[in-house]
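quick one: magnesium ion bound model?
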Amino acid sequence: MPPASRANDNRGPDISSQTVVFRARGLAKTYGARETAVHALRDVDLDISEGEFIVLLGPSGSGKSTLLNILGGLDAPTSGEARFRDHELTGASEDELTTYRREHVSFVFQFYNLIPSLNVAENVRLVAEIAANPMPVEEAVALVGLTPRLHHFPSELSGGEQQRVAVARAIVKRPDVLLCDEPTGALDSETGRLVLGAIEKANRELGTTTVVITHNSVIAGMAHRVLSLRDGRIVDVSINPNRKSAGELSW
Amino acid sequence: MVIPGRILNRKALRDLWALRAQVISIALLIASGIAVFVMSASNYASLLRARNTHYAAERFADVFVSLKHAPLAVAERLKLIDGVGVLEARIAATVRIDDPTSELPVLGRMLSLPRHGQPALNRLVLRSGIWPDAARTDQVLVNEAFAERRGLRPGDSLRAILNGRFQSFVVAGVALSPEFVFAARPGDPLPDDRHFAVLWAPERTLANAFDMLGAFNDLVLTLAPGANALRVMAELDEALSRFGSTGAIMRRDHPSERFLSDELVEQRTLAVIAPALFFGVAAFLLAVVVGRLVEAQRDQIASLKALGYPTGPILQHYFLLVGVIAVAGAGIGIAAGHGLAIWVVEAYREFFRFPVMEHRLEIWAVLASFGVSLAVALGAVLRSVTRIVLLPAMVAMRPTPPQFRAMALPGWLGLVSSTRPRMALRGIVGRPLRSALSMIGVGLAMPLVVLGLFWFDALDYMIDMTFDRIQRGDVYVGLTEARPASALEGFRRLEGVMIAEGQRIVPVILRSEHRTYRASLSGLMPGSELNVARKSDYTRLPIPEEGLLLSRRLAERLALRIGDNVTVEVLEGRRLVREIPLTAISDDVLGMSATLSITALNTLLREGPLINVVALRIDPAHRTALLRKLADRPAIATISSKQAWLALFRDRLVGLIVVSAGVLTLFGVLIVVGVVYNVARVTFHERATELASLRVLGFTRGEAAGILLTELAVIVAVGTGIGVALSGWIVRVLLSARSTESFEIPPVIATSTYVIAVLAVIVTSTWSAWLIRRRVDRLDLVAVLKARE
Ligand SMILES: Nc1ncnc2c1ncn2[C@@H]1O[C@H](COP(=O)(O)OP(=O)(O)OP(=O)(O)O)[C@@H](O)[C@H]1O
Ligand SMILES: [Mg+2]
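yep, here:
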């Protein structure tokens, strides 16, 4: 049953009958007040299903990062509600959000944010140590193809390699959700494909619900569903009938 | 036209504001150093000026001789000695002042005034009242310290015992003299104004009372310009020895002058050493804080330069930032130092009696304060600022977080199995220079707290050693002249006397090669219970049967070692000279003592078993009655009591020490706070991204802060270890720099002092940790991760 594209309804579990994990209603985020107020998000409704791979597109300043950060429990909306399974994200305390991130979420950012004083294995182990059900560190590193560099420090790696370590660190705890903000923004296309490949593998093999922000519309080809934002609203939703794998992308 | 740099200067001010807590703590450190400097420099200048003015205006003598009795004609002949400027003969006597209310005898030093007007030398400054009428024998001038303490005013009456006879006087006036700026009885370490007076009376009064008509027993003189002081003194000694001279004394050995110059040395030391410490720490902190600021702004600098912005204004605005801190610190320090100096000068008035002692804010000290603060502050940051600002734009654009590489890290870190402690340790090892400096910073701060507190330990030790272990008598009685040892029986029979021991004490000159020292040579009974020589570990040192026992400082002063021969020249009676071997060295705290067995001394003096001092252990219940009874005995010249000494000591010194120790401790704590807090802040800023990453990864606030705090804890712990090790050393260096002849503070530090200092470090560290923890809690994850460090 190939699902149809429904421009104004971005709620449905479109690709499968799997359960909704994220559910947002009337989500809004405003910075400042009155005349100087910036509406980063306005009245966003969104459902995301388990195992879904979503790409967020949109011009700079359209609210992509804001949405992602709220979903990941890094930021709180000004109004509206957001929940992940049984975790109420709006109005949650700092400690509840931390627990939520710790148990369910992993991030990958444009800047790799590795710990410079820890080597590859240790950067990954750092997260494994606080996870309930981590995969072996070596396995996570193998997934991003960096086994030979296990004992190198971040300063001894290229940017792409560092980003792959960041991905390994993100997937080692077998997260339920993987949130990536421009993961390939600083990389050339070939390295970018390697990194996306690793993300894709996690989505496919571990069933990790994945959201990727990008400015590169080619990457949207990997998604189950592509959301376009403009001025803090979701203005377009499209569903990929034929998903491409990371290796097939070119830019 | 736009002046490049105007905007940058605004940026400098905003940076200052952003760093205000650190800026304030560093400025306060500079202020502390400057405060001590301004205070000591001003005190030094006020004392020096007051002394020099007083000495010049009142014509303080250069040389002093006291003798037994010589006809005035002798003095006339001495005026002809080559090199003698003005010479004046006078009569000096020790008198007892009658005061039935005083437990201890009140002694007076009475000096004759010439027939007409002021003396030629050591003139007096009349503070109130009138000059005594030379024709009358019932008028005296009284020194101000005694008059104030006793509430004496011109017109009041006073009874004294002169040569065994009671005599009544009227206080004509109250005066000051350059001879008694520091008016202590000879041999006393502190002025006891209650029990010591200086009286001036017309010559006739003294001549009549002491059978000195046409004679003198005291000489003061100035040297002619270019005169050879030693030769003049040798000639005086030669001419006067048969009149019972105890030898000429130079001005710098005059007791009042010696105390004054000791204090001057002390202030000078303080003016240099303490500020050096503070500046060292402030410079370190500036280097760290500004270094980190510039490092964080290196890509801003690079992009400015890439845009073609000139280097000059960029450099200049960082220097402006540092200059503001230095100038603010110096300004606060000058104000505080000025306040402290006024307070100290007030305290000085109790000790040092000058006609005028003004406190002025010394312009040179102010200029030096600003100059040194600026120089130190700019010097501290010069390297880190220029290093980055002068980098080519392209190089600067590349960030340089610490480069961790597998090879460079020590293998033992692998032993730490958990990842987070390993991160903390790598944070330290990965910035070896910074970490070492931080540790040294803490290590320098702690000794300052110790430096403030150890005075109490040292005083306890001095009191314990001196009064409980060495001079164990409760009362020491000086006899008017030497008497047979059998006189002791009379003392033992007095009610309340538990032990009575005789001593023979004579003034001597000790010589070894070209070194000489005037000392009191004490003859003690072997096995004496009341006077025990000791080693610094308190072990008892027996009085040698034959040889001489010297206190360590005296032996060092004469460069003597055990086995060396010392020439002992007795300044009494027949002025015998003999060589005696040094056979033992003791560790006294106060004074410079020379000791023989009493029999050896009696033999040396070619006399029978004589004594002239009696040491007593008394029953406190009978104390008052006993002292009264002793005071009435005509054969007794002086009585000193341990209890009165301790009271005087507490009264005079402890308050002063409590305050200065308090100030030092406060400064020490300030440094601890400055170092620990700044190091913590800088480390926090450097790690903000890392901490934010950890939080994003799901680490709790506590876990994230824990890594940073572990790192700080290790730095503080190692720093504290260094501090403990350095404390003893710094205390010794400071003490040896201020060591003066009158007494030396022993470098004794009690365990409790270390505990308090370590606690101070722990408390400030905990407080800094708490501040950092709060910052970690408030870390805006989104903002930190958006900004690329
Ligand atoms: N801390 C803040 N204070 C004020 N406005 C903010 C803040 N953070 C974001 N904004 C504003 O919110 C809007 C959305 O920002 P957001 O970071 O979500 O954009 P984005 O879609 O991720 O853009 P980009 O593609 O450039 O990363 C922007 O207009 C931005 O200026
Ligand atoms: Mg964004």
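Helices of chain A lie at 64-71, 94-104, 120-128, 137-143, 159-171, 189-206.
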